[in-house]
Amino acid sequence: MLQLTRDGEYAVRAILHLSSQPVGQVTLVNEIAEAQDVPKSYLSKIMQHLVKSGLVKSRRGARGGFILAKPADQITLREAIEAIEGPIHLNVCLIKKGECPRDEVCPVHPIWRDAQKKLFEILDSKNMADLVKDSEKLHRQMHKAGARKDKAR
Questions:
Q1: N or C: which end of the chain has fewer CB within 10 A?
Q2: pLDDT tens per residue across span 15-52
Q3: Can you say how many angstroms the Cα of residue 73 is from the centroid of all Cα atoms in its chain?
Q4: pLDDT tens digits for 85-102?
Q5: Which residue in 69, 68, 85, 76 sits closest to 32, CA to CA?
Q6: β strands within the chain, DSSP E
Q7: Gap between the Cα atoms of 105 and 124, Å rounded
Q8: Contact (CB, 8 A) for 109 and 64
Q9: Interhelix angle 109-125/77-85, nearest 10 degrees
């Protein structure tokens, strides 16, 4: 089964949280963990990987924490995933030419290639700033729906 790992999911949540903060605001790992419902100790390790990937910067000391290394509108969903998961390949034959001895004669190879291309297009089409806006819109809609239910009672 093709599936994002828990590390990948938590990394996306963490970057999304940092993207929702005012530009330049340093955020503690505790705040991210609580807001995103992720165990702090687990998230701390993920955050270090995100720092190594170059998507996040860490600051030490009393005012320490994490901050995006570049603007949210310059971080795609694909970059956030690949920072933790590594390069996405739907099948071994897509890693590089010749990786699979059948890639020249396999009738499924072009389908894998096209599926991966479409996946990349989708993941690259959304950046973290877009997703923050989408999240805010969803929260407003949920709040309105909740208010309507309360009035109906």
A1: N
A2: 999 999 999 899 999 999 999 999 999 999 999 999 99
A3: 13
A4: 999 988 888 888 878 888
A5: 68
A6: 56-59, 65-68
A7: 30
A8: no
A9: 120
